[in-house]
Amino acid sequence: MKQIVILFILISQQLVFSQIENDKNLILVDKFRFNAGVYFPTEILKIGANGDNSNLDFDFNEAFKLDHYETTFFFNFFWRFSKKWVLSTEYFGVSESQKVELEDDISWNEYTFKKGSNVEAGYGLNMYRIFVGRVISRGVKHEFSGGLGIHAMNINAFIKGKAFINEENFEFKKSAISSTIPLPNIGIWYIYAPTAKLSLMGRLDWFGITIGEYSGSLWNLGPSINYQVFKNIGIGAGYRYFKASAKVDKPNWDGKFSVTYKGPIISLSGNF
User: Fold this and answer.
1) Are the C-beta atoms of residues 151 and 207 closer than 8 Å to each other?
2) Could you tell me the residue ranges of all domains in the chain?
3) What is the average pLDDT across 84-111?
């Protein structure tokens, strides 16, 4: 009789354990996960060139009547390469250009584009993120992790049109700057999955440091929600706030910039 009771207890525990495993959201256990979607950010870009110029930092969107609203592709990939360690990558990019009549003088590198002149201006920004993290706490319905990563931002901007190259000469010029700026950061994220279908996630990245020719800061916040429609396919929505600023001291660009993106994301996710 005693042996039968023990066997019954073991079978019951196994059934309970199996049920827990079956109810566990796959976002907490699958090895690979990706999200591909569309990002709808409101943008604010302030950028300047020529570190000796007092008018270094101006609103690029306002000065050249660029649209404050963008629609861009967004992608991230997550790899759980061991029980405790994960690797993630991410990308999004924006670009825009516009022809305008200047309402104010603009000094850019060694040139001055005068009020009333017609110019074309534009910019592009590509943001790449790679992050290595470790699971700090894990349960049936949650996971809390933290780690180190780097945001690499490739930024370029240009102005072309009639410009004063000194007090007397007025010529057509194109002045462009570009740089790839590394911004290392620390980050944390938390996943809560109350059901096998639904999961909530929050992420925070922060940075503030000087590295060689670069100094700056970064904030990256991203709450999101995901619903597992099928075993390997889900749909999601979220919000992303991204703000970065940096000073650059290089021969091809002595200046600074500040960029802010904030807006919703809709995505399709896959896990396996």
Assistant:
1) yes
2) 2-106+121-157+175-271
3) 86
